[in-house]
Write a structure and sequence with these properties.
The structure holds 2 protein chains of 2 kinds. Chain A is mainly alpha-helical. Chain A folds into 2 domains: 24-60, no CATH class; 79-315, MetI-like fold (Orthogonal Bundle). Helices cover 71% and strands 0% of the residues of chain A. Chain A contains 13 helices and no strands. Chain A has helices spanning 12-18, 31-60, 79-86, 88-120, 126-138, 141-151, 158-165, 177-206, 209-217, 222-250, 254-259, 271-280, 285-315. In chain A, helix 2 (31-60) crosses helix 13, helix 4 crosses helix 8 (177-206) and helix 8 crosses helix 10. Chain A starts with 11 loop residues before the first helix and ends with a helix. Chain B is α/β, with parallel strands linked by helices. Chain B is 41% helix and 14% strand. Chain B contains 19 helices and 13 strands. Classes of the chains: A mainly alpha, B alpha/beta. At the A-B interface, helix 2, helix 3, helix 12 and helix 13 of A face helix 1, helix 3 and helix 18 of B.
Chain lengths: 316, 451
């Protein structure tokens, strides 16, 4: 009788390479090589399409290279970075982006959680409701931008038409400084609230029922149950959703492009939209690369701080 | 973006040659194999008219050739062409460039120098010299002239300028003759006709919409965009005439437009006219054909009925009679195969013949040859065509320099800001002058270019 085959090992890599090939397979093709063969196409694609361009952009960010003017790239070292950080134009876009991110993500979180909470309390039709609420998220941002552009048109749009029927005046949603950024926030909220809702709903349905039952026995109020059971248990998951949305909102481009083109003037130009202009209007590739790298760095730093806070929350 | 820049940056040393490669003086032997000649343009009626016309007419001479006019949204037009130029590989053979794009394309070596080809194959005397220069010459010609020693990089495809569209049934058959008169007529019309705005014009901050509007008013009120010789913008654009033009645009014209029209461009202006919502409007002639379509209009059920209400006139004059130069030229991509470059040159030679230009006029195009412009085929093809013929001697272009895309963006965003109350007119004009001057002066800047 042979020894039983061990199912676990402290060195899975070694065990894998020691495993004899399956019948019918070449003796030279070990599991390790097979794994490499399967992974390498995806790995090569990742290297070619993401890692190499990123490293190349990092190199270009220290040069004055222009994609259309060509010629050799001259090193300007941190010239691009200092110019970007000192530029009033960039500060203006950064402020616009900050207002947009805070406004949109806050609104989406409040609405998303509220909708999820209300849905989670229903026993019938929950699946259908969830699916219906998810529809906006499935649409292309360009499509969303286009139909909201028509809906928000001051002259022919359905929104102003509805306001008119209520006896209210026309609002210039997309062409006034006070309303254009707000309109962008509303449209983004319409599209992405379901994302927060979905994650919050997952958190809400995972809350153990016995906690509520125990609270009921203790005759705890609805608000007390929400504050001491629901919110603390869903909060970490909600914060992850907020992180994802904040990163997405930080790099907003498509809605701005379709709805306002950054206008009126440059009052709704976000950082991403500005990078696009630097990269493709003037083809200042070096500057645009540095701008992009700085944006990535900001996201990484803020995400790290955020994750630390999340971990601390978890430990507490 | 990272992928595009990497492709461009790794594209080899071809980009180090900063001058355009030369096209042969004579057309090389053409292929007998099936061939698709591709254009790139933005999506508007002339693009579709060109594809239909060229496939119907050019194939009579070259049955093995198919013409494909690829279109992109207007706002992406520059990017679509120049990102491909940056990659040194184009899926088009004939880029249709705005006249102001020529400098950027020539400096980067993206299009062929066709000076010798033109000398041998094109009747240059058949054109108004400025039209030939505007759509092909670099360095840029002085307004109204052509420098015969300068190189040519393109030939006219579609001439264009603004027309004033006015409601004959609301303001009478005689169009206003001066800009001030036009404003007062529009004001009265707006007061007399509730629900109809006095004016409709381009105000959007995409493409060159708001900038062309300001440049037009600037020209009419005697202003200048720059001093081309000294490359000075600050102090020229925002001089007294420039300030007056901005004041007229923002404080006198804007209040006569519809609420929320601050993002209007070609289609929105046409829609306002077709829906009977504007007394006087300004639009490009080449885009005005849609106004005569009864299916799109509430002004009449037949073309004749629409024309009984709509009039087309040249722009009113004030201190000068300048009008904006529109339209585009056709060029040959430096990255096309030799076979396709030869076919492109043959197409251009064919297209610029007198009889073909008249047929193009009859098909809805705006030709550039003088004989075609004066022909009944052109003048009778549309009610606005005479406006174009009368405007040719009055045209003024913007800057045709490699920095054009940035200059136009600065002007567009600032004029749009002024029109929509985000900036005072004076601040907007001063910012345009300051920022544009900085762009022209920044060639020696180390780092941070483009901000």
């Amino acid at each position: 009788m042979s020894d039983p085959v061990s199912l676990t090992t402290d060195h899975p890599g070694q065990a894998a390479s020691a495993t004899p090939p399956a019948p019918g397979r070449s003796r030279h093709l070990s599991d390790r090589w097979l794994a490499v063969a399967f992974i390498s196409p995806a790995l090569l694609l990742l290297l070619a399409m993401s890692v190499f361009p990123l490293l190349w952009a990092l190199y270009l960010s220290f040069t004055d290279y222009s994609a259309t003017r060509g010629g050799p790239a001259h090193f300007v070292w941190f010239g691009n970075y200092t110019a970007i950080l000192a530029s009033e134009q960039v500060h203006l876009r950064a402020l616009t982006t900050l207002i947009y991110v805070v406004g949109a993500v806050t609104l989406q979180t409040v609405l998303g959680f509220t909708i999820a909470y209300l849905i989670s309390r229903r026993t019938r039709g929950r699946g259908l409701l969830t699916t219906l609420f998810l529809i906006p998220m499935m649409l292309s941002p360009v499509v969303v931008g286009l139909f909201w552009r028509f809906m928000l048109d001051a002259q022919f749009g359905v929104i102003n038409s509805m306001l008119g029927s209520l006896g209210l005046g026309q609002v210039e949603w997309l062409t006034r400084q006070q309303t254009a950024l707000f309109s962008l926030i509303v449209v983004d909220t319409w599209q992405w609230t379901p994302f927060i809702m979905l994650i919050a709903l997952a958190g809400l349905t995972a809350v153990p029922k016995y906690l509520y039952e125990a609270a009921s026995i203790d005759r705890a109020s609805e608000w007390f149950r929400f504050r001491t059971i629901t919110l603390p248990l869903v909060w970490p998951l909600l914060l992850i959703a907020v992180l994802f949305r904040a990163i997405e909102a930080f790099r907003l481009f498509d809605l701005v492009y379709i709805l306002t083109s950054g206008g009126p003037g440059v009052s709704t130009e976000t950082l991403s939209f500005h990078v696009y202009k630097v990269a493709f209007l003037g083809f200042n590739t070096g500057t645009a690369s540095a701008y992009g790298i700085l944006m990535v760095l900001i996201v990484i730093i803020l995400t790290q701080l955020y994750l630390r806070y999340l971990n601390k929350l978890k430990e507490d | 973006m990272l992928v595009v820049t990497s492709m461009a940056a790794c594209g080899g040393d071809e980009g180090t040659n900063a001058s355009a490669p030369k096209a042969p003086a004579t057309i090389p032997e053409l292929t007998k194999d099936p061939l698709t000649l591709s254009f790139i343009w933005f999506d508007w009626p002339p693009a579709h008219a060109l594809e239909t016309f060229a496939n119907a007419e050019y194939t009579k001479e070259r049955p093995n050739v198919t013409i494909k006019v690829n279109t992109v949204p207007n706002a992406n037009w520059h990017d679509a062409m120049f990102t491909q130029f940056a990659a040194h590989k184009t899926d088009f053979d004939i880029p249709i460039l705005d006249s102001q794009h020529i400098g950027e394309a020539v400096t980067n070596g993206n299009i062929l120098d066709i000076t010798d080809f033109v000398k041998q194959n094109i009747e240059v005397d058949a054109y108004n010299p400025y039209l030939l220069a505007a759509y092909g010459q670099f360095p840029q010609a002085e307004t109204g002239k052509r420098d015969e020693n300068a190189s040519l990089y393109g030939l006219p495809l579609l001439g264009d300028t603004w027309t004033m569209i006015y409601r004959k049934d609301l303001i009478g058959d005689t169009p206003p003759q001066t800009w001030d008169e036009m404003i007062s007529v529009a004001e009265k019309c707006q007061t007399d006709n509730p629900g109809v705005s006095g004016l409709a014009f381009h105000q959007a901050n995409g493409s060159d919409a708001a900038a062309v509007t300001y440049n037009t008013v600037n020209g009419v009120y005697g202003g200048n965009l720059w001093d081309a010789k000294s490359r000075k913008i600050e102090g020229v654009l925002n001089d007294a005439a420039g300030q007056e033009a901005m004041d007229v645009l923002v404080n006198k014209m804007k209040p006569l437009t519809a609420k929320g029209s601050g993002n209007w461009f070609i289609d929105e202006v046409n829609a306002a006219v077709a829906q009977g919502k504007a007394c006087i409007a300004f639009n490009w002639i080449a885009a005005s054909g849609a106004l005569l379509d009864p299916k799109e209009s509430t002004l009449g059920t037949t073309k004749e009925e629409i024309l009984s209400k709509l009039g087309f006139a040249t722009l009113p004059s004030q201190k000068t009679n300048l009008v904006p130069l529109g339209g585009m030229g056709m060029h040959v991509s430096a990255y096309s195969s030799e076979e396709k470059q030869a076919e492109a040159l043959n197409f251009m030679k064919w297209f610029e013949q007198a009889d073909i230009q008249k047929k193009w006029a009859a098909a809805g195009g705006v030709p550039a040859r003088t004989d075609a412009l004066e022909s009944p085929e052109f003048l009778n093809a549309g009610p606005f065509n005479k406006v174009y013929a009368d405007s040719v001697s009055r045209m003024r272009d913007m800057w045709n320099v490699p920095e054009y895309a940035r200059l136009i963006d600065i002007e567009n965003t600032n004029v749009n800001a002024a029109l929509n109350g985000a900036k005072s007119p004076q601040d907007a004009l001063n910012d345009i002058a300051k920022e544009q001057q900085a762009v022209l002066d920044s060639s020696s800047q180390k780092g941070g270019g483009g901000l």
